[in-house]
Amino acid sequence: MSLLVVGLSHRSAPVSVLERAALSTDAQVKLAQDTVAAEPATEAAVLATCNRIELYADVDKFHAGVAELSTLLAQHSGVGLDELTPYLYVHYEDRAVHHLFSVACGLDSMVVGEGQILAQLKDSLARAQELHSAGRLMNDLFQQGLRVGKRAHSETGIDRAGQSLVTFGLEQLTAGGDVQAWAKGKKALVIGAGSMSSLAAATLARAGVAEIVVANRTYDRAERLAQILNDADDTDVVARAVPMDAVPGELTRADVAVSCTGATGLVLTAESVAAAVEGRTGEPVAEIAVPQAPKQLPAAGPGTDENCPLDLTAAQSGFSVMGEAAVAGMAAAELEQHAAWVDNGTVDIREAGRRTPENPEAEAELIGALAAAAARVGRIPERRRPEPVAGFARPAPALFLLDLAMPRDIDAAVHRLAGVRLVDIESLAEASADAPMAADVDQVRRIVSDEVAAFGAAQRAAHITPTVVALRTMAADVVAGEIARLDGRLPDLDERQRGEIRQAVHRVVDKLLHAPTVRVKQLAAEPGGAGYADALRTLFDLDPETVAAVSRAVDSTDKKDRPA
Q1: Residue 517: predicted pLDDT
Q2: Is 50 an active-site residue?
């Protein structure tokens, strides 16, 4: 087994990077196909959700595999490799298995414990099987991951720690209030008819909204979802379907809208949202200008800012861009470059609002220390938003928007519109960082650890099976040859005597091979046991092609017996 995963998620990358790297279904298909066509990989599967993009592969070389998978991810995501690399994580062999099992249990989700990831894992496996990019390793890995995830949810209270991303999003829309009290009697617009949109519609219906309008590019799917909602016995919601071009008008009537489509562009622009609110209230929608403290910017480099590796416009209020806020999210190499820029910068004050650091040498030393920290932990965590300004409050929202799409469906500029509350993947990521964790998470972690050990043992044991089968085949051939030679030398033996001799020889060979083959399977299942197969092949001079043929036959049987 040489399992390798290369990916990025909400834990390793800012939402802005995840959004740009998001893969369409067609891109996921092409990525899997190109991966198995590449030299280091023989199997591949792609797991792409709203907050992660991961490429799994069975590779024969670690370093070449990392380089190839990283390059393919960059090519198919459209984000340059140099820009993408600082946000990528790599897991190999048992660590890769541990990562997938943790993902399957919801431990690595934005909302810890959510169960939607199981359906996404199932879809990824089905797609890989359809493309024939999943062989024995990918099938075993993902199928066992699904079993581990189901076990975690059935044997522990992880469901109490987590909830669906939809439910979490609705809680953020209510600003911590009671969702059912907030939803009662509201009119909802759901844009999209996929799995996440369907979950959103069902959640809104159970929460008590009075009406749900479903809009989708394929009208038949919207109509089918609306019918399912109308036929449900546990709600009194009234649902109807509309084409996508009816969204602007429906948005004017809606109290809350949830969008999760596969569109590559914006579904709702800031202008369309403002027009909808204006049509609803009859008043123009103003943009909110949040007061901020003056930004503290660094002194320029030698006559210009162009050599500074930072985007100076991204400085947060209340911090020096030479300090921790400026370097948030940067990798060690970039930090070292920034430290050098600070150390070599000239000292001049050119216009109001700019200042030199009081002690450039000290700040350069600080950033050098930050670089060392980033080298250990990956990168400095982002601080996306400035501290709230005292005494400032937004007007009460007339329209609530929940954007669960990646890339985003709703223009981020909507955050600045008065009378609108927008919750998107980025704001959910920030809110989930402070979400409490249930004690059951520790129990799930123990389940994952146990399952990883069992999976590794099974894979290592399976790895030696073709060699053991080839050894027994060789022994049977030797017995058959010796019996044939005996028949020629003792032609007067009757059939009963020949049978006794044949059985005696077979029993001797079986007894000689039984203990070594049982023991070698046990040893091979332990960590570091992969070398026992090579030892058997060397000691008994087994033909490599015979072993390979047995392995191919086992794989073929597995595929034939595997459920569709």
Answers
A1: 78
A2: yes
